[in-house]
Each structure stands twice: as structure tokens, then as C-alpha cells.
Amino acid sequence: MLTQRLTINVPKAIKRNIGILAPALQKATDPIQKLFIDKIHEYTAKSVGGKLVDASPEIEKERQSELDRIRKQYNIQGDPKEFPKLKFA
């Protein structure tokens, strides 16, 4: 019974997935689509360090002041960007 269902449904699922993925796997031929993909690759290359992308020193200073304000307001000892470690006793 299971093998019968698999032989019927697996080809349908494969056909459906190939139909959905086919446009995504093709190369970008449209110039706007190519520009969009180039910008995504450029952003990915810039964001490797984990910092803000193309941030001016003014924005970095404002970000740090906000993090300091949050640290003081909520009495955070460690890094405010880090997820808190939960301990269950």
C-alpha cells in the first residue's frame, strides 16, 4: 500500500518541484534581473564582517550610544546583541 502511494505521489512531487525551481536555476538574461543579482552578491561580499554595510562613522557612533543606553536601561552585563543564556534549575 505504501509503495503504491510512493510510486504515484513521488513523480508528481518531483515534477512539481522541478517546475517551481526551473526559473530560479536559469541564468539571468534580463538586464534588470542581472543588476539585482549583482547587487545581492555585492551586498553579501560587504556584509561578511557582521557590521553595518556602508555605515558612516556618525551612524556607528549613534548605534553605539543606543547600545550603551539599552545596556544601562536594562542593566545588561554582557553584550546586548547576544541572546541571553537561560538556566533552568
List keywords for this structure.
single chain; mainly alpha
Quick recap:
GO terms for molecular function: proton transmembrane transporter activity. The protein is an all-alpha fold and 89 residues long.
Explain this structure to me?
This protein is mainly α and 89 residues long. It has one domain (1-74). Helix content is 64%, strand content 0%. It is built from three helices and no strands. It has helices spanning 2-25, 31-46, 57-73. The longest helix has 24 residues, at 2-25.
Class by SSE composition: mainly alpha
Give the overall silhouette. Answer: flat
Mean pLDDT, all residues: 83
In whole angstroms, the N-to-C terminal distance is: 48 Å
Number of strands: 0
Order of helices and strands: HHH
What is the count of distinct domains? 1
Radius of gyration of CA atoms, rounded to a whole number: 24 Å
Strand content: under 5%
User: Helix fraction?
Assistant: 55-70%
Poorly predicted segments? none
- Count of alpha/pi helices: 3
Biggest β-sheet strands, sense, barrel? none
